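Moderator note: this is an archived Q&A kept for reference. The question asked for a predicted structure of one protein chain; the sequence and the answer are reproduced below.
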Amino acid sequence: MTAQKRIKTAFKKTKINKRIPLYKGPGYLKQCDNYERVNCTICLKWFPNTGLYISSKINKNYNLGDAGLKIEDREYQINLVRLKINSKKENYLESVVTSDTYELVANKKIHFALVNFKNYVGIPVFNDKKMQSWSRDRITVVVDDYSLIVEKRIDFNDIQEDLKNSGGYGITHYGVVDIKNKNIKPDEIISALQFALSFINGAWCGPVLLAQWINRRKLVKYRNCFLSEYKYRRSVLGKMQYAEMQEIILLMCCKLLDERSRQAYMTLVHTYIVCSDVSKITVEMATVLIQSALEMIAEMVIYEKLRRFSKKEWNAKPASTKIEILLKEFKITSKVPSTMRDLHRHSSGKKLSGPVLITKIRNPQIHPDKKNRVKIAAYTADIRIQIWRLAMWYYDLCVLKLIDYNGEYNVTISSNKFEYSEFVPWAL
C-alpha cells in the first residue's frame, strides 16, 4: 500500500488548548457613539468554551456588553467580556463573536479538526516533507457526492499529561471534506459527519473547526458542537478496524443525509452517546433511555416498515415483547450471554430474557412506588451494570443493522476487560 502526502491544514500544530490566530489587522469598533479604527486579533479559543474571540488595543471608553466590529466588508456582532488597563495606561478589550457572519460555500473543501477521537491504524501517509517516514494514520471515504479524509496527528499516549492540564480536551485529528454534489448543503454533510464520527468514537468529537481562509483573507463559517472530555469510552470498533470504520461512516452519513430519516438517526446517536458514559448518568437511567430507544427502533422496523401487526395488536404488547420481536428479526439472541456470569446465573433459574431484565430495571425508575423500590433493591450493583452493558450491546447491534452494516464489530459483553471482534450475527 503506497503512502500518500498529508492533507494541508489552515493551522499549524500547536500545544493543546492554545489559541489559534485567525486574523490580525485593522478593523472598526463601534458601541453607541464610540467609533474608532483599531488593530485587532481574532483567535479561535478552544475548550471548554470554544468560540471566536477578538482582542484589541483601544483609545476610547467602552462598556461591557454588545458592540459591533467591521473588518473589510464583514460585520461582527460581538460581546465585550473584559476591559483592562496595564501599567502603561493602555486600554485593551476582549470580546466574543456572538453571531454567525459567514456562509459555507458549496463545492469548496472544508477543513476541520476532531477532538479526542479514537486511535486507529489506517492508510499510510508520509510524516515529513522528504517523504521518508510514514505511518498508518489516514481514513478515506470517497463517494459520488463527497470525499472525506481524516488523519491522526497525535497519539493519545503522547498527550496524556497535556490532556489533564487542558481539562481533558485536545485536537487529535485533522480532516477535510470535499463536496461534489451541489445539491448537498455544507451544513448537512458536516452535521452528518458529527453524528457518524461521534457514534464510532462513543463520544462527541466534532467536527469542531470549520474555519479556513478564502483568498488568504476571509473566514469561512465556524460552527460549535457538542464535545466530550477525554476518558476511556466503549466503542463499536477496535483500533485495527479502519476498513470497517470507513464503511460505517459511509452508511451512517447516507442515513443522516436523507431528510426522511435524519432526525431519527440523530436521536439514536445522541441517546447512544449519553448512555455510553455512566459517569454522567446512572446505569439505571441509562438503561431506561436505551429501552426507549430500542422500542423506537422496534416501532420503526416491525410496525411501520414491515407491518407485522395491526396498531391495536402492536400497542397491546409489552415493551419486552416488542424488543424480543425486534431482536429475533435482526437475528440477535435475546438470551443472556454466558460471558455475563452474574447476570446469567440470576436469569437462568427464572428463565428471564435480556429484554425482560431491561424492563425490570426500567419500570421501577419510571414508577418509583414502594413496591417497585423494593424490587430494584434486590438487584446488586454488578447485576445492574451488566444489564446496562447488555442493553448497550443490543443497541450497538440494532443501530448497525439499521444502517445495513455487515462487517465485524467490537464485542463489549465479555466477562473480562478485554474486548474482541466478530461478525454481526445477521452476516453469519
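Archived answer notes: Residues 20-97 form one domain.
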